[in-house]
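Q: What would this chain look like folded?
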Amino acid sequence: FTASIVGSALGAQRIEIWTDVHGMLTADPTLYQRARRVKVISFQEASELAYFGAKVLHPSTLLPAIQKRIPVAILNSRNPKAPGTLIIEKAPATKNIFKSIACKKNITIVDICSTRMLMAYGFLRAIFEVFERYETPVDMVSTSEVSVSLTVDNARRLPEIVEELRRIASVSYQGGMAIVCLVGDNIKFTPGIAGKVFKAVEKVNVRMISQGASLLNISFVVDERRLKEVVSRLHRTFFREVDPKVFE
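A: My prediction, written as structure tokens:
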């Protein structure tokens, strides 16, 4: 993040982030050992991956570079000659739907339900004001007329949050979950993607589903104990063949 800020302030031609991996990969190698290197990716795609758990980048790293349109290179300090990953404003077109699969572990789902609040305005605001007071960010949100399900990755103050929410609704929560996020610019141009994703993981119980407003990601929640299986199934489905212009 510091390197990105300094590079932006200096108007650098390129910002280099030196780390201990070969760049951004198609999946976490601890979950899927045959993950491929992503040669080039867009700012937006990389930002989505960073937010949803790609450890190679801090979520805020790209913001200064995006403002100045400065390319960012992710390079391996243990192998300086390796080409790494280049993050640019607009990545080249590719045949692959997705660029990578990101995951967030240690997720807790919070289910909030209140028939008393049916059609009542201000219900969502009341819920999120509680999370704001306890400085607990929310990752995913799914709503219906009388219920809201959401995820948090920091459950430290959850007992206090739940106690306050129970004044206006019935609340339950479950930990030990994980968010799986598939990211790619081609999502917006390819019909039937959701069907292919959930066909690949049809034997796994999916708790929540969300497609980002940016149309760059499809996210869902599963039991963390099934995470390795889910990532393996998705990778075999969507990265069986890769475009050599973008992947190695």
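The chain has a mean pLDDT of 90.
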